[in-house]
Amino acid sequence: MTDVIDETLASHNQTPEAVPEAGLFGKAVNAIGLLFAIGILASAGLLFYEVVMRYVFNAPTRWVHETVVFLSALAFVYGGLYAAAIDKHIRVVIFYDRLSAGMKRVFNILISLTCLIASLFFAWAAWLSVKRAAWTPQGDFRLETSGSAWNPPYPGLLKIFLLIILVLLVVQFTIFTINYLRRKGQA
User: Fold this and answer.
1) SS3 of residue 111 by DSSP
2) What pTM does this model have?
3) Is 33 buried (19+), middle (13-18) or exposed (0-12) by CB count in 10 A?
4) Euclidean distance between CA atoms 77 and 158, whole angstroms
5) C-alpha 32 chain-centroid distance
6) DSSP 86
7) Which end of the chain has less neighbouring CB within 10 Å, N or C?
8) In the chain, where are the structural domains located?
9) pLDDT tens, 85-102?
């Protein structure tokens, strides 16, 4: 009985691995995900710091809230790429799980192609946003800022990061499509 409990606990404590179809790129995405997890922990620490500064020392900060929102946004944006690499994205399994191995392969190819095309469109839209957030109408480089008292360039940086992640999603779904095409007769 204790072996079953130990095995169950061990399986729940493991970090998900990238699926084989994600290739080496997926493994790299999975490994880098730890940095964004640390960012979430840093956000929690910063929130605790803000509470102490505000309510214990009556000296609130101007930078913690925006920094926490920025770090959290980076983690959530990266989460899309991470979810793709470990194949934990949303899927209607009530139909998918009933398919034969050959049909699963066809669906995997179609899903990957659809995601690839959608990621391309979203990357294009992100590029249009980055053009406005990173350059003035005269062509000078100037990142969009938050407009707050502290006024960090977090909005501009976040838009650039979103563009990078969407381009990486295009790469990831291209790898998925190629690898699913190579796997003849398998799910």
Assistant:
1) helix
2) 0.88
3) buried
4) 9
5) 10
6) T
7) N
8) 21-182
9) 998 877 778 888 899 999
